Amino acid sequence: MHIPVLKDEVIRLLDPKPNENFIDCTIGEGGHSLAILERTRPNGKVLGIDADPNCLEALKARIKGTEYEGRLILVHGNFANLREIVEKHNFKPISGVLFDLGLSSWHLEASGRGFSFLRNEPLDMRYDTSNPLTAEIIVNNWSLKDIEHILRVYGEERFARRIAKEIVKSRPIKTTIELVMAIERATPKWYHRRRIHPATKTFQALRIAVNHELENLERGLAQAIEVLESGGRIAVIAFHSLEDRTVKHFLRDKFKQGVIKILTKKPIRPSEKEIAENPRSRSARLRAAVKL
Ligand SMILES: C[S@@+](CC[C@H](N)C(=O)[O-])C[C@H]1O[C@@H](n2cnc3c(N)ncnc32)[C@H](O)[C@@H]1O
């Protein structure tokens, strides 16, 4: 099961109170949302959005017959369309919005969609399986230049050109292991012996490109601030520097415009204890703000 990251810190910053409504833009397995619902009894609601219909089905089955059932509204959608989703469900007033970005443990370990370079699976990497773009399409059809570009920009991969060249040369590449082998052929031996697996950055880049993660994040953040009540809070957990930079710049701009007050001068990081218990939390950075 996915262990919610920085849960106590998220709750402290969002500060849910009885009967308030919250939006969880990335509900996943619902860890943060259930903690919010604990504090918003008896009538507070959570509008929980996820791009992945499988996550929503699993959560729906889990809460069936519990006291949460009537207070948790589950919506399949993309947080890039947050305003439209909120309007459609006539969900207001909104006291807080949470983004816990990226993928859940289920995606890595059980989805079978090729998110992990440690498993041999088809190259898919979509959260939303109705999205027409897959990692396989990128790897087998995009130009050398475009692949190099995403590896460099979304992966911050120093061997972007060498890896892109080897990918093009090795086509067709259908599975994660075939891709890992191409990456290993393209990179020097010392690069294989570091703490970070040599495929980490390529896989991150492909995932970001397949799911349009940075564009969606910018759109979602802007709409989150719009839908919030005055005094409402936004909390965002990012898992890599590109994401965190996007969040940091967005909050700084909104602060300069006099729209928000930032609650986290520096991003909040998980404690050593949390990292030991949940290694996936290692790279998390939490930022939060209150709408004025
Ligand atoms: C880190 S998990 C969330 C885990 C959740 N907070 C929990 O405690 O169980 C991120 C979730 O966001 C979803 N997701 C990613 N991008 C999305 C987007 N643009 N719109 C909606 N959901 C998205 C993924 O499918 C995934 O289930």
Q: What would you note in describing this structure?
A:
- With 292 residues, the chain is an alpha/beta fold.
- The chain contains 14 helices and 7 strands.
- It has a 7-stranded mixed sheet with strand order 3-2-1-4-5-7-6, sandwiched between helices.
- The protein is globular, with a radius of gyration of 20 Å.
- The model has no long low-confidence stretch (mean pLDDT 97).
Give a short overview.
This protein has 292 residues and is α/β, with parallel strands linked by helices. 45% of the residues lie in helices and 12% in strands. A seven-stranded mixed β-sheet has the order 3-2-1-4-5-7-6, sandwiched between helices.
SSE arrangement:
Layout: H1 7-14, E1 22-24, H2 31-39, E2 46-50, H3 53-63, E3 72-76, H4 82-88, E4 96-100, H5 105-109, H6 135-141, H7 144-153, H8 160-170, H9 176-186, H10 189-192, H11 200-210, H12 213-227, E5 233-238, H13 241-256, E6 260-262, H14 272-277, E7 285-291
Parallel strand pairs: 1-2, 1-4, 2-3, 4-5
Antiparallel strand pairs: 5-7, 6-7
The structure holds S-adenosylmethionine (SAM).
